Structure formats: C-alpha cells, structure tokens
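User: Okay, second chain of the day. Same drill as before: sequence in, structure tokens out.
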Amino acid sequence: MTDEDPQAGQRVRRRASRSAGPTGADADAAAVVVPTEKKSAEQKSAEQKSAEQKAAEQKVAAPVALGKPDTPPEKVVSGDQVATKAEPTGTTETPAETAVDTPVRSKPKAGLVVGIAVASVIAVALTALTVFLLVDRNKASNADEDRARYVAGARTTALNLTTLHADTAAADLDKFLAGTTDEFKSQFDGRKDSFVNVLGQAGVQTDGEVLEAGFEKSDGDCGTSLVAVRAMQKNGDEAPAERNYRLRITMCDVDGQLLASNVEFVP
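Assistant: Same drill. Structure tokens below.
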C-alpha cells in the first residue's frame, strides 16, 4: 500500500501546480461583475463629492460668527432702555470719577468767575468814566454860562457908561451906578451932584454902541471882559464926533446879581 507509482505522483503534482484562476465560465461571470462594482464605486464617489459640495455651500451661506464661540449672544434692547441706562441711577461717585470730574467742573467756574470780575471792573470803570464826563461837562457848561453872563454884564455896563445926556444926567448916572458894587459906588460919594452939574453945563450928549466884547479871565466869583465901544459925542453946539473906547470891566457875582466892581479905560 505504501509503494506508489512514480508517474502517478507526478500527475498529482501537476494538478497541484495548475495555475489558479476561474474557469472559462467563472471568467465570464467575473467579467460581468467587475463593471458593476466599478460603477458602484464611482457612484459612491460622485455622491460623496456632491455631499461635500453641498456642505461647503452651506458653510459659505451660513453667517460667520465672530468672537469667542462661548460668548453669549448680545441682548437687544430698545431705545427707551438705552436712555434709561444712560441716566445716572445714583448720586454716589467713585473716587476715580470725582478725580476726573473735578478739573472739568472747576475750569468753567474759574472762567466764569474771572469773566464776571472783568465785567464788573469794566462796568465800574465805565460808570466812573461816565460820571466824570458828566461832571466835567456840567462844569464846562457852567463855566460857559458864567463867561457869557460876565460878558453880558460888561456890555451893559459899558453901554450905560457911554450913554449920558445933559438933561437926564442924574437919572443916567443913577442907572449906571445901579449896576456897580458898593465899593465902586463909594468913588462917587460926595461928587455925584458936581458930576451931574458938569454934564449939564457942558451940554454933553453921548450915545454909546458896543462893537465887540470878549471874556478875558476869571477870578473866583468875578470875571473880566474887554469891551470895544463906539460913542457919538456932542458938546454944546459942536458937531457930533465919533469916539472909540476900549474898556476892561470886571463883573462880580454878589448874592446872585452881577455888578461891576471895576472899570478901566484901555489905550
């Protein structure tokens, strides 16, 4: 039983060494199946690509959220709520807020104080200047009025002095002396009658006319003026002759009345 034919053993080895593979029928079946598997793989690959493309489109279309993923979404508030939050809810200020607010508040106050001070100084200065100007104007106005009064009194005195008539000599002389001070009148004490007689005997007729008058100076309640007078003088039967005089007349305010205190003939 152990002895075998050598040729038989070789045939067995040939069968065992026969190339593996499908037979003709199997090859035909495999040829039919292979295209189906390839098609299925390509279909899966196309579907996978289509799915990836859709996923990519969804990612692109989806809004990109910035910030940390764990950050909670911001709460949407209305305009009234924002205004309510903006208003201060308490009177207590932190030290930092006080330190920041103090310079900002102090500057406007300091500027306001300085502005008020400057405005007050300017107002006081303007008031003082206005008062000074008014007082000065009043003084100037009063001075002008006094000068005009002195000149007017001097004109009247010069006219009364150069207007005398023999037949009215006493009345003319009284008129002239009525506008003089007591001191000036005293110069005619005891000589008035003799003066009137001289005028009557000489037949003096003189009529004066003031040509020009101007204020010269003032001294206290007195003012001196220069007066130019032209007089038509006639003595007796002589023809009238023109006489020109320059008079320096000092008028003084005596109890509110202007009176001549001195009369000088100026060459």
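The chain has a mean pLDDT of 73.

User: Thanks, on to the next one.
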